[in-house]
Amino acid sequence: MFxxxxxxSFCLLFSIFLSAQxxxxxxxxxxxxxxxxPINPLAPAKAAFYSAILPGLGQAYNKRYWKIPIVYxxxxxxxxxxxxxxxxxHRFRDAYKVRLAGGKDEFDGQYSTATLLNAQKTFQRNRxxxxxxxxxxxxxxxxxxxxxxxxxxxxxxxxxxxRPDYYPTDINYRHNVGLSLNYQF
Length: 185
Prior knowledge:
Elements: H1 2-33, H2 43-53, H3 57-61, H4 68-101, H5 113-152, E1 160-168, E2 175-183
Antiparallel strand pairs: 1-2
């Protein structure tokens, strides 16, 4: 039993020693090879500005070219539904006005006057909703470019590490194994 504990302790101390030696070499190599570029705090604002001027331009600035067809597809869909609902709204509104004036409209005999009025209100509501959704997609395009530019500047390097740790507890001084998260400035 004592022999097993001795061998286990020796292996544990030897692995910690090797781990410490490895870390020093890594730091020396990392200091020589890693070049840090300065953070440009204006880049997110520039990406948002570009995206506000021309939708998708902020995504191109961030080099996220795959998002550009999504932006134009979403905006195109919103514009299509706005134009379609606007056309149908005006069609039913004009028919309703002609019917109130006593003339013959294109829906004569198909729909009642109340139905024309309800259809006109429905297409007006759908048109307004399509407009709001399209504006929301445009704003989401700007926000996406800004957030993506911020995330491009997010610093992920070896100064942030997660490693196992062996420590005694404060209450009963028994040794525990756990994980420690270290961040070096």
